[in-house]
Design a protein that fits this description.
Number of helices: 4
Number of strands: 0
Shape: elongated
Mean pLDDT: 95
Low-confidence stretches: none
Order of helices and strands: HHHH
Strand content: under 5%
Structural class: mainly alpha
């Protein structure tokens, strides 16, 4: 079984990271969960996250959320 993360299968792990970040963003900002998800998908962080070569997908949702807040 091939367990390597590639650009072709990276999309499989992103929803769980986005979901957790959206929960934190909604809680901290008072936004709806839908608006929080939209903000994350529109962010420069997500642009980097969806590129396998950046290796940001290695980061956990808390670290990613901190990166999001730093932008």
């Amino acid at each position: 079984m091939n367990l390597d993360i590639t650009q072709n299968n990276l999309y499989l792990i992103l929803p769980s990271k986005v979901s957790r970040m959206a929960e934190m963003l909604a809680s901290d900002s008072g936004k709806s969960i839908v608006d929080a998800v939209k903000d994350i998908y529109a962010s420069p962080l997500y642009e980097r996250l969806e590129q396998e070569h950046t290796k940001q997908w290695h980061m956990g949702p808390v670290a990613l959320y901190q990166e999001l807040g730093a932008m």
